[in-house]
């Protein structure tokens, strides 16, 4: 069922193109916003307008939004290479391989952690949306490493709160281009959708608060191995913040990495691994911590840099 919204153009969008303004106001990609405008589903002060028209603050918008796509239904499907690091009555900790998302999403046809666990007969918490049962945090498809999934309802509730309150210790290792200056620091910069509306995220003034701590573990001629501690968990946060420092993750072409260096090191995705995960057990209260070794492709890249 479509949804019609009527509201004025905010002052902060004065002079923006109509498609860019619609994208910002409703959290759409710019391409999707343009499609809605072209279909005649946007009125500006009561008349149809073109996607490149400039908007004025206070002008009245009437936008008919299409219904959201229906969420995919999880199916039990084995995930090769996914390892179970720990399991008890309340939680299961997995080491996620490359090319696997946390849960099914619209447009994704590959494997997911959720479906892999269902295939192995694991009973997960049913709180939250059906397509995300038990999932309390996520990793990008091509980011490997540790994820905790809730099996009991109380674990789901406690872990969701722990992630929200930033009491979970999430540590990542990433190989970035060049040498950050200073070698240890904090990036405190808000993240939102990239103005281009092409699926990227970026540091933007009206984005959500995002805090990343980094420390150089090892420096090489052309790159640095960093340990990252996240306070927040925004989409692509480490990748966006490293790119904002002009030290993108090696192999991360979406955010400006050098393809020549990636090719030389045999890296075909962003060099980013969730190496440690620590939190208070949701029912026992005791602190627990888990660690994950680098997968072969990332380990080989580091070894090559050391040899160089």
In brief, what are we looking at here?
By secondary structure, the protein is of the alpha+beta class.
Largest sheet: 9 strands, mixed
Order of helices and strands: EHHEEEEEHEHEEEEEEHHEEH
CATH architecture of the largest domain: 2-Layer Sandwich
What do the pLDDT scores average to?
90
Beta-strand segment tally: 15
Helix-strand category? alpha+beta
State the helicity in percent bands.
10-25%
**Low confidence ranges:** none
Q: In percent, how much strand structure appears in the residues?
A: 25-35%
State the name of the first-level CATH class of the largest domain. Answer: Alpha Beta
Domains, number:
3
* CATH superfamily label of the largest domain: Pseudouridine synthase
Gross morphology: globular
Radius of gyration, Cα only, in angstroms? 22 Å
Could you explain the architecture of this structure?
The chain is of the alpha+beta class and 308 residues long. It has three domains: 3-65, Roll (Structural Genomics Hypothetical 15.5 Kd Protein In mrcA-pckA Intergenic Region, Chain A), CATH 3.10.290.10; 69-164, Pseudouridine synthase (2-Layer Sandwich), CATH 3.30.2350.10; 172-273 and 299-307, Pseudouridine synthase (2-Layer Sandwich), CATH 3.30.2350.10. The protein contains seven helices and 15 strands. Strands 5, 6, 7, 8, 9, 12, 13, 14 and 15 form a nine-stranded mixed beta sheet that branches. It has a four-stranded antiparallel beta sheet with strand order 1-4-2-3. The longest helix has 12 residues, at 153-164. It is globular. The N and C termini lie far apart (59 Å). The model has no long low-confidence stretch (mean pLDDT 90).
